[in-house]
Amino acid sequence: MWSDDEEQGTEPVEATWEEHSQFYRSFSRFMSVSEHDRRETVRVFFIEQDVPVLESPDIDFIPTNMLSGFFLHTHKAEVKMPSGEVDKPVIDDNHDGTVSIRYDPKEEGIHELAVKYNGEHVQGSPFKFHVDSISSGYVTAYGPGLVHGVTGEPAQFIISTKGAGAGGLQMAVEGPSKADITYHDNKDGTVSVSYLPTAPGEYKISVRFGDKHIKGSPYFAKITGEGRKRNQISVGSCSEVTLPGVISDNDLRSLNASIQAPTGLEEPCFLKRMPTGNIGISFTPREIGEHTVSVKRLGKHIANSPFKVNVCEREVGDAKKVVVTGNALKEGKTHQDNVFSIDTRNAGYGGLSLSIEGPSKAEIQCTDKDDGTLNIAYKPTEPGYYIVNLKFADHHVTGSPFTVKVSGEGTNRQREKIQRQREAVPITEVGSQCKLTFKMPGITSFDLSATVTSPGGVSEDAEIQEIEDGLYAVHFIPKELGVHTVSVKYKQIHIPGSPFQFTVGPLKDTGAHLVKAGGPGLEHGEQGVPAEFNVWTREAGGGTLAISVEGPSKAEIEFKDRKDGSCDVSYVVSEPGDYRIGLKFNDRHIPDSPFKVYISPAMGEAHKLEVAQFPTGCVQADKPAQFMVRKNGAKGELDAKVVAPSNNEDDCFIQLIDQDQYSVRFYPRENGIHAIHVKFNGVHIPGSPYRIKVGKDDVDPAAVHASGKGLGDVKTGEKTDLIIDTCNAGAGTLAVTIDGPAKVAMDCTEVEEGYKVRYTPLLPGHYYMTIKYNQMHIVGSPFKINCTGESLAEAGGQETSSVIVETVAKVSKGGNRTGVILPIFKSDASKIQSKGMGLKKAYMGKQNQFTVNAGDAGNNILFVGIYGPKGPCDEVFIKHTGRNQYTVNYLVRERGDYILLVKWGDDHIPGSPFKVEV
Question: What angle do CA 49, 55, 61 make, to 5 degrees?
Fold first, then answer.
């Protein structure tokens, strides 16, 4: 590449383009793109209007004949040059599932390489790289680590210093995580550099020579977080203080407490019954000095509140005084317990949180010796680099985060992944036809029902149509802007994913937390048989949906876009065992992902079995129920268990009635939706697990709503709250979880309309609050909360805080025993039109009629009343003919003047009250 004359000090010879490109050719070795998703497919359109308009330069359009036929290139690469022009590199098929990309640059500067498959960017695309045209004597850098990488895997590149003379080489990597950097001098004028990123994001790589940036520096590498598994545990350690006064257990439920530190930081704290019988508080001391404890009932201080508590120096948690010992924080082995010890005896009071992230979800066990010391054991199943975050009192202990190199045999888990671009759905307008689709094969549409609740609280039944076999659509026409709740039930039980959020008008928020997924393929499956599920991305806006299946065998994944913000996914695996289904939207896991699914062996004779006399409707808790199972000649063992909403499992009692028929008895012990697993030779029989509702209380997560400042923008160090309204939702289990940059002190107390949740964030950033009622997300959950302010703790992996409450049945404030709440109507009675003879004149003994048109008057209830000389008339009949059009008939038996009142909600319509002459 460089001439010998240059090294002897003579005038350098101008290098040719061919010589330049030799230097950069080594870069192409590192760039490959998988093409295992799908083979090239030919699509033919027979009607000329159906040919898509190909404005995008990303698609090749190659006409084959006059009949509008064409095909799409499935893999494609383009280079955008610094001048803005687009150039095409050469794509070589390696015939091993990868392709190589070669490119000879023609310009200096930053280039962008876009690599697409099936019209969609591959992971990390577009890649950026820098091109020089300089002679020897300059320092240059090249390699994939300057462009892209994966968390937990070393990213590598090479620095060439050939002929550059003396000068100090300096390098720095800045990004979302601390990156360990290693160098290796190759003794040939080049240095191999490797750095280990531990969090996804953009990393800035600065390379300096003689205190000056080399050409192209700083470089920006896109690090993705694919394939990382995370596990965490928390061990609480709190200071306890007894407060004066005696309080009954009933009063304890309605009290809440908070503690304010000398600097003003206020956090919720927990009330508990002390052995003395007095009330006590439990909190984590963060500062030295006098703290103020407020204990309130329904917002008012109890007697003697606020209390004063003094915290001395030795009580405040100090992460620097935590002693960690053990080689397991440097290296570990797969499939065995790697143990290290933690000593917090001299570190004061504080909670301990531990998270381990790496190629597998390492199982963690904690042995608390009750003397301030603990033993932690983790068992990874895959080799590679693991990141261990260890925090005490919300601060990293010395040395954290630790990078651990784990060696040993893996589990040979196979992984298959596809990526699809999801376009944002056009904005829905008031009055337009709305559609929400879902796939549920093998059911009857008679057992499906749907309701739509508007932002104002008006609930209406919605129409369900079967589009094709097993594919259903809910149709409705919204009458107002905002977030609607769509509940879809099968046999009176919400289908997976229901209740749904459906925004009419512009989306208020977008992102992975608004993607929903549900279906049998995320719960169980059978080897060799397609397992199906639905994904709804409508509310999340546009982005990239990545679907991965990991387990004992490789999966074949099929994807079908329904073009309405939803899609079908099915996958087939060839081996039974535990699989993990990962769903990511814009590189972030959707709620409840990854899903753990057990794929059972091939059904074999289990398909012969059938269930009879299964209980319909509700069954009672603490009372036995039963159903029959016919074997129909199958040979083998029958097994059954019942899984309660709390995940408690109980065996069913199986009794042989005759040679081919069994009775299965089960005894539910709690209210809610139970799953009954019926297996034959260890394999689910058709339809298993069966879902059944236990108890009369109709627990409905669609009726639960959350509101308050705590769901909006919050500040660090400030106590904030929200109300979860459970009126008319029945008694159930309320679970609130907050995921974010730091743990939060959180409590939940009962209030008149439901439950109040209070929390104090310590670090700025995005927090995600999940609110579930009987294991089902309420509408809007998880909520994205933006927190600003100063950092009051140290950052380090995501932290989770949660609180669970067994709720009691609540009714609205009016004390209405039936629990019916009138919705908030938005209407205008002045826009109502009425006409007909019955508004002016009526005839005795005949049906007198008039019509009311409330189509433009919003939503409300029509009230009609007629009063005559001797009291009310005999009958009034109101018929709704659709779209807020009404026909009113009435019958009178006496002569005289009548008063006709027509009201739309609380307001008279124009002309009311009317005078009617009989």
Answer: 70
